[in-house]
Amino acid sequence: MSVMREIKIDKLVLNMGVGEAGDKLVKAEAVLEKIAGHKPTRTYVKEAVREWDLKPGSPIGCKITLRGKNADETLQKLLVAVERRIKKRSFDRQGNVSFGVKEHIDIPGVSYDPSIGIFGMDVCVSLKRPGFRISRRHMIPRKVPKSHQITRDEAIDFMVNKFGVEVV
What we know:
This protein is α+β, with helices and mostly antiparallel strands.
């Protein structure tokens, strides 16, 4: 196989939507920092939602974006939490995969702390091949050719072969 056809993890995003600012959000940030080893950034409300009493600009959750070796190591831990099983519908047509972790205490190396409680999180994995930069470069950006894009089946094969995932 050509080096240019090799699939890699572009980024891994861990997201916790808490729904409110305050103590609960601070605890969620502490959990994400314990899992990933980096400081999370807060996410904010973009549009007002009266039913939930949300105002634009108020903090509502937190997230961390990991790349490179950190993304690989953290993804290994997160896959153990879901017993290395991912549903086929979790893969999109561009080869990305998303799944949820219901309880953060299922992740190896994280123990239960009664003062924090239990949080769930969303995990989004974005895959890429060498050459994908042409779509984001400043000078003369181009579309990634159809033959070079990652399909759903290629993403499934990558996750099965590299991480030992069982696709259900």
